[in-house]
Write a structure and sequence with these properties.
This protein is mostly beta strands and 302 residues long. Helices cover 0% and strands 43% of the residues. It contains no helices and 28 strands. It has strands spanning 3-5, 20-25, 31-35, 45-48, 55-58, 73-75, 80-84, 91-95, 102-107, 114-117, 123-127, 130-135, 138-143, 150-155, 160-165, 170-174, 180-184, 191-196, 202-206, 211-214, 221-225, 234-237, 243-246, 253-256, 265-267, 281-283, 289-293, 298-301. The strands form seven sheets. A four-stranded antiparallel beta sheet has the order 1-28-27-26, with no helix packed on it. A four-stranded antiparallel beta sheet has the order 2-3-4-5, with no helix packed on it. A hairpin with a 6-residue loop joins strand 8 and strand 9 (102-107). The N and C termini lie close together (5 Å).
């Protein structure tokens, strides 16, 4: 482990540390994390150097900002940061990734479940079964089709948006106009996580304990990865096609090298066996893997 990113640790009165609720990496390599719970301590969203792990800043408070979030996205031409303003709400804060200034607030009717940002800066937001899109602060698109809550979103290649739902399906949409392009079926329980590889392949994690790999061209199922015994809550993939997945059952992150059908190796560290929530995973620049350590709120990097 080259270094730890410590400092997003906020102590409760009972001396336990604040869980990290969400994790994202900007195009400039900056790592962002949110506090998980709304207990009135801390400033909610924090920025770190993805190079040396140094703490950079806490984002400015939104005028209606509460505390805590399990949803976070960073992207677009200006590396803009999006996160819900209040735990469980439909209000979304918008911040500058350059200096942490609060820029705007977007509103949806119900709890924000997932966020994804297209290359042009269009932000897609899921709340309940509906996906909405904003461009430059204006609501531009509403997408309907899932039969249950949409809990994961990812931007694909060729102008595609992927959505994963409690209805067990993954749907493929046109970013331009929201047209439904395909439905990917195979998971037998809710889809919990999505990630897109550099080659356009889609990676999914599900409550059925599997991770799956889908073609970015025709949506065909390429691989089903077994090994977890609890729901797969987080997936990530690096530029070489190495797949990382995590659940809460064994205090480890499973790693599949490109094309492997069985676990290549596992990552773990001291104290990880106290896990209650599954670690969150994201791959940053230079293929660095960032992961949360749920036991104490630390962020780790390989």
């Amino acid at each position: 482990v080259p270094h730890k990113l410590i400092g997003d640790r906020v102590e409760y009165n009972n001396n336990t540390s604040e869980e990290v609720g969400a994790l994202a990496v900007g195009t400039d390599g900056t790592v962002y994390s949110t506090n998980a719970f709304g207990n009135g301590i801390g400033n909610g969203t924090h920025a770190w150097s993805g190079t040396d792990g140094s703490y950079l800043r806490a984002l400015d408070r939104n005028p209606i900002f509460g505390f805590g979030s399990s949803v976070l996205a960073v992207g677009g031409p200006d590396n803009t940061v999006y996160a819900p303003c209040i735990v469980g709400s439909g209000s979304i804060g918008v911040w500058s990734g350059t200096d942490g200034r609060c820029l705007d607030t977007l509103h949806t009717p119900s709890k924000v479940r997932a966020l994804a940002i297209a290359v042009d800066g269009t932000v897609f937001v899921s709340s309940h079964t509906v996906i909405r899109a904003w461009s430059k602060g204006e609501h531009v698109l509403t997408i309907l089709g899932h039969a249950d809550i949409v809990v994961a979103l990812a931007i694909g290649t060729q102008g595609r948006l992927y959505s994963g739902s409690d209805d067990t399906t993954i749907r493929v949409w046109s970013i331009a106009d929201g047209t439904h392009l395909a439905t990917l079926a195979g998971h037998t329980l809710p889809v919990r996580a999505l990630a897109v590889g550099a080659d356009g392949t889609l990676h999914s994690g599900s409550a059925d304990t599997t991770a799956r790999v889908w073609s970015g061209d025709d949506g065909g199922l390429l691989l089903t990865l077994w090994g977890h015994t609890q729901p797969v809550a987080s997936v990530a993939v690096d530029s070489r096609g190495t797949i990382f997945s995590a659940s809460a059952e064994s205090a480890t992150i499973r790693v599949w090298c490109s094309g492997a059908r069985t676990t290549s190796y596992v990552l773990s560290w001291v104290g990880f066996d106290q896990v209650v929530y599954p670690p969150l995973l994201v791959v940053g620049r230079d293929d660095k893997l960032f992961a949360t350590r749920p036991a104490d709120g630390a962020l780790m990097v390989w």
